[in-house]
């Protein structure tokens, strides 16, 4: 592999880097009074996004990858902390609250038959359901912090009826646009966000998965109307796909109008196009996913072209999020190997490595010093990065393409993904049977 600075990296060296990342991550854990483990400095934040819940997926990944039960033991000890945190949560969402804890605890019960984790997961989802007011759970009304993510969590733990209950409010709240529908991400918001994390495509993703799982055509049709609105805003065609962060621009003095990662860019947009390709059996959706990939690979990332352009290594909106899509494409037999190697080599070149292990510092160019403290979490730290490095190593060796823990907003690799057709050859929205302009 050739990095942007000419450094050569091989699969076994990437695996060593991942091990060093795990070593630093494990050393950062604190033991709780009951023998559990926590990575959360703030006890009120054990979340999937930035707390202990987001550490468990990489521990499960390491357990499967290395066949080492020591990682399983660490994951179960982390589960004790999560179980203890269930009742004290103020937030009920997937990424920032109780639903995310429930999903991780449910996984620990499924994988290891741990009754305490199973009971805590059930209690957590019961509490989430009890706090539903009939329309929403709180201020946020999107995938990460609102109904969409809660619906995906309910589906993942085996409660499709609750999943439908969670996402049905989107049918009532949809705002008609010239091209389809959209939603406000919070009450009174002027900007309409368009992408996966807080925008239309994340809501559409949840509606699609829940709608197909439960046979609710109205949910799927509304999802397609949301996708149609975003597709109509594309500025990257005909070869690429690029939609601005929001309309009008949310916090224009702070937020860039264009991004390329999972949260607000084509690396995330491609995931719903992959889902629609697989659920509708129409390769035209795959063509849109390919256009997203074209834009990502021609964007200049992971180079730092100017202050603030690409200063994040993490899984939420940095290099690891693009690597996740690259690995999906490799597993599906689509061209992505060369760029995946560039991403991995860049992560290797920018890692801070010493006797304690390996970690990554994101950059905030408006702060002094600009190098931020390394983090352990899924969103911006080691947990999200190491998980993608391990998967890349496994793919490089022809191994299992999936994850030990399936994130509910990333479609599994499809064995029947067909070669894409020309994006101009068919209109996937109309071929899916929905006229979004009526």
Topology:
Elements lengths: L10 H17 L2 E2 L5 E2 L17 H11 L2 H17 L12 H15 L2 H16 L16 H10 L3 H8 L1 H5 L1 E2 L4 E2 L9 E2 L6 H15 L2 H15 L14 E2 L18 H15 L2 H15 L21 H13 L5 H14 L1 E3 L2 E3 L22 H15 L31 H4 L7
Antiparallel strand pairs: 1-2, 3-4, 5-6, 7-8
Helix pairs in contact: 1-15, 2-3, 2-15, 3-4, 3-5, 4-5, 4-6, 6-7, 6-9, 7-9, 9-10, 9-11, 11-12, 13-14, 13-15
Strand content: under 5%
Q: Could you state the order of secondary-structure elements as H and E?
A: HEEHHHHHHHEEEHHEHHHHEEHH
Strand tally: 8
Helix vs. strand class: mainly alpha
Structure in a nutshell:
This protein is mainly alpha-helical and 438 residues long. It is built from 16 helices and eight strands.
What structural keywords apply?
disordered N terminus; 16 helices; single chain; 47% helix; two-stranded antiparallel sheet; mainly alpha; 438 residues; two-stranded antiparallel ribbon
């Amino acid at each position: 592999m050739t990095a942007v600075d000419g450094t050569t990296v091989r699969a076994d060296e990437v695996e060593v880097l991942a091990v060093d990342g795990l070593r630093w991550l494990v050393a950062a854990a604190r033991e709780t009074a009951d023998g559990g483990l926590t990575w959360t400095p703030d006890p009120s934040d054990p979340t999937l996004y930035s707390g202990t819940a987001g550490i468990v997926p990489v521990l499960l990944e390491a357990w499967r990858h290395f066949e080492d039960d020591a990682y399983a033991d660490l994951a179960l000890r982390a589960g004790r902390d999560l179980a203890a945190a269930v009742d004290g949560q103020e937030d009920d969402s997937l990424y920032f609250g109780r639903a995310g804890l429930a999903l991780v605890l449910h996984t620990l019960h499924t994988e290891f038959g741990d009754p305490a984790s199973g009971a805590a997961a059930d209690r957590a989802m019961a509490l989430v359901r009890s706090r539903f007011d009939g329309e929403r759970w709180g201020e946020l009304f999107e995938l990460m912090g609102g109904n969409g993510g809660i619906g995906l969590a309910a589906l993942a733990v085996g409660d499709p009826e609750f999943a439908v209950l969670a996402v049905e409010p989107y049918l009532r709240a949809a705002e008609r646009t010239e091209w389809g529908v959209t939603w406000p991400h919070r009450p009174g918001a002027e900007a309409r966000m368009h992408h996966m994390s807080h925008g239309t495509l994340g809501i559409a993703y949840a509606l699609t998965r829940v709608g197909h799982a439960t046979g609710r055509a109205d949910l799927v049709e509304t999802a397609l109307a949301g996708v149609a609105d975003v597709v109509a805003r594309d500025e990257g065609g005909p070869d690429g796909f690029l939609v601005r962060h929001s309309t009008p621009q949310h916090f224009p003095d702070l937020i860039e109008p264009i991004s390329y990662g999972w949260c607000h860019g084509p690396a995330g947009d491609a995931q719903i196009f992959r889902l629609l390709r697989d659920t509708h059996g129409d390769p035209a959706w795959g063509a849109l996913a390919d256009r997203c990939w074209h834009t990502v690979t021609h964007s200049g990332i992971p180079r730092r072209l100017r202050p603030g352009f690409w200063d994040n290594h993490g899984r939420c909106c940095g290099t690891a999020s693009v690597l996740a899509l690259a690995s999906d494409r490799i597993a599906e037999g689509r061209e992505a190997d060369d760029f995946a190697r560039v991403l991995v080599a860049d992560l290797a070149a920018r890692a801070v490595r010493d006797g304690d292990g390996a970690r990554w510092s994101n950059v905030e160019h408006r702060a002094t010093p600009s190098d931020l403290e390394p983090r352990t979490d899924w969103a911006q730290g080691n947990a999200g990065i190491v998980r993608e490095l391990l998967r890349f190593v496994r793919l490089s060796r022809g191994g299992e393409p999936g994850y030990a823990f399936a994130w509910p907003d990333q479609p599994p690799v499809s064995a029947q993904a067909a070669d894409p057709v020309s994006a101009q050859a068919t209109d996937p929205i109309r071929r899916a049977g929905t006229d979004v302009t009526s």
